[in-house]
Design brief:
This is MALD3 protein. One of its GO terms (cellular component) is membrane. InterPro entries: Marvel (IPR008253), MARVEL_domain_protein_3 (IPR053077). Keywords: Membrane, Transmembrane, Transmembrane helix. Its main location: membrane. The protein is an all-alpha fold and 215 residues long. The chain has one domain. Helix content is 85%, strand content 0%. The longest helix is centred in the middle third of the chain and has 44 residues. It is rod-shaped and about 85 Å long. The two termini are 26 Å apart.
Amino acid sequence: GSLERRRCLYLHTGRACCQMMEVLLAALILVCSSVSGGSAGGYTGLPALGGIYYYQYGGAYSGFSGADGERAQQLDQHFYLLKLPIARAAMAVGGCLLVFPFVLILVGVLRVPWHFPAWLVIECTLYIVIAVGTVPAQYYFFHSLLSIYNSSVCKEREQLYQSKGYQGFWCSLHGAEIAAGLLGCTAAMAYLLSAALAVRDYRTVHEQKQKQLQL
């Protein structure tokens, strides 16, 4: 009935649209973080996938044999374990950022801000805290990754693969990690915009309630 229509109207508001954009950004951050973690290694991981990967990378890395193959496997797994904690942390953050706007959309659909306007102040505060928190989070993310790429494990791994003519194992940030950083910056701006919209909506709700009291 009319109650359901009023609830659905929230999805057409600026705040809801911003929250849906935050869901998309968080999902992309989660995907990029999972790509950054990768598999257990190039030598042991890609051939197991078969198909296009098998042929693209030279028939299960046929250039490796004996001690070189074993060393490549050790370096791959060590490199994977070095990246695993930061990848899991980034995925956890992305997951939390994915759930947060979903909860706020549900709160908006249930018209909680109308019945409890102070919620919008809480929402604004949470958005500002998260937006500010993305700065040290991004610093930690990139500082940790650069430390891993500058490690002796990564350097030896890079040299070993290059000696066999394989490319793509450089000790530098790759596209998914850079994309995760850019998405994090975009998300921070979206959170600040949502904070401003929450303040605006708080004023609107407060004024409407004052008018109802006067009537």
